[in-house]
Structures are given as C-alpha cells and as structure tokens.
Amino acid sequence: MNFIKTKLDGVLIIEQNVFGDHRGWFTETYNQESFEKVGLTLSFVQDNHSFSATKGTLRGLHYQLAPKAQTKLVRCTKGSIYDVAVDIRKGSVTYGEWFGIELTAENKKQLLVPKGFAHAFMTLTDDVEVQYKVDELYSPENDRGIVWNDPDIGIEWPMSIKPVLSGKDEKAPQLKDADNNFTYGAE
Q1: Catalytic residue among 95, 119, 132, 138
Q2: C-beta atoms surrounding 79 within 10 Å
Q3: pLDDT-derived band of residue 187, with 50, 70 and 90 as boundaries?
Q4: What residues does 12 pair with on adjacent strands?
Q5: What is the pTM of this model?
Q6: Which of 3, 27, 77, 182 has its CA 20 to 30 A from that of 109?
Q7: Quick count: other Cβ atoms within 10 Å of Cβ 157?
C-alpha cells in the first residue's frame, strides 16, 4: 500500500497494489499492519455501502460530533465519484479548506478522512457504489452536516449541474453556523 499525503494534514490517498492476470485481479483494500507502519492505529467497527442511481448525486458534507466522530476509509467500487474532505477543526491552519479526488472502480484509490473533517462525494456516472469503513458506529444524535455549496469553503465540484440532494443535505447550514466541536490538536 502506498500512503500519499494531501494538503490537509491527516487526509491521505491510499493506493493499493493490484495483482492481475488473465482471470482478473486481486488487491488488499485494508491491512492493519500496513496502516500501523505509517502510524495509523484504527479500529474499524462498521462497513457502509451506498448506491446512487443518478450521475450528479451529491451526498454530504457529513460528519459526527465528538465523542462519536468517525474516521472514514472511502472507496468507489462501481462507477466514479469526486470525493471531498473539508477541514472543520477550529484553530487548524487549513480550517475551511478542502481537498478533492476522483475515486473510481478502475483506479482503486481510497481516501482516508480523519475525525475533524466533513466528507462528501458527487457521483460522476450513473449506477455508482461506494463502500467505506468507519471507526465509530453511526450515531443519529451526533450526525451533522454542512451545505455542499458553502461559499466560504468554495468547493469546485466537477459538474455544474444542480446536484441530486437529500432533503437533509439541502437544508444543511454553512460552516460558520454549523454545530461543530472539533479543535485542532484535540483529536
């Protein structure tokens, strides 16, 4: 596994080794020992799998408040997405900044989104499946969001169409008004 740093401290691109032959291919999507070698000691407790039927579906920006905050290891297993992490740790030098990457079934890249970051993705094709591991169980009472088009964040989404959103995501507040108990250095 190859762990690639991004401009946001703690957000990592993970590239797997893919072994293929005439039958197809094989890859490890998670290996605890490989993660620990780069200082990541995570205990994943839940795997999630989502399906989005329509190109332009946008899910996020989502996060859970501490102490139920989640680290997410995200991959796209069918189709392609534009995956985004936003630093929402108060006091961070990159507070309010974002990082985006295309994750596809073909490139097999993953994005590690640590606690203290909001996460979203936009589907770039129809019939998309996304799978992700989290290190904390879903907690409805700690579930929060930030509006996808917050002008103070300024995410440059790859498609200019009006996204397909849930009612919850349409009504999410801007970062400056969001319920947020993350402080840089307190993770």
Answers
A1: 132
A2: 20
A3: low
A4: 5, 112
A5: 0.96
A6: 182
A7: 16
